[in-house]
Amino acid sequence: MEVQLRSPKEIMKLSRLGCFHQSKLSFLRSFLEEFKDWKYSRDLFELNKEGYGRAVYSFSKKNRTYSLVCFANELKDDERSDRVIATKWDAAFALYDGIPNKQDIERLNENVPMQEVGRLSYKELTLSRANRSVRLFNEVVESLSNGRQPDKNILSKVGYLYRTTAVYGSGKFGLADRFRVKNRSEIKGPFRLEMMLVYLVRQFTFDQINHIAKNKNPKRFVELDSEIAKGLGIGNSTGLGMAPFIVNHPTLLNNWVLARETILKQIREIEKVDKDQFNTFLICLKKSIKNVKNWNTDSDFQKKKIKELFGDLEKTIKYLDTIKFNQKFLFNEIYKWAENQVCDECLEYLVSIFMEPFDEIVNNFKDKMSSDEDKYFTIPTERNISELRDILEKNYSDILKLDFSKKENNHNFWFISKNKEEPRLGSRFEVNGSELEQPLAIARDIKKLYDRVIVTKNSLSIAEFLIENNDLRHVVRRAFIIEKFPYSEILDNTIGQKLMPIDMLRFKLSFFGAIKFDPRSDKWLRICMFQGAPLPHQLNNFDDKWVYETLN
Amino acid sequence: MRSLSEIDTISKRASKAKGFSWGVSEEIGKCVKHLELFGLPGLKNLNQYLKIYDQNKFQQIKLISKSNLSENKFHCPISSGIGFLDQIKSLEKLKSLEFNKIAYPILFLSFASRASEVLGKKILLKLDEKEFILNFNQSIFGNYSKNEIWENANSVLINFLDNNNSFSDDEWKEMTKFANETFVEESDELKEKSAGAGLTDND
Question: What's the predicted TM-score (pTM) here?
Answer without folding.
Answer: 0.93
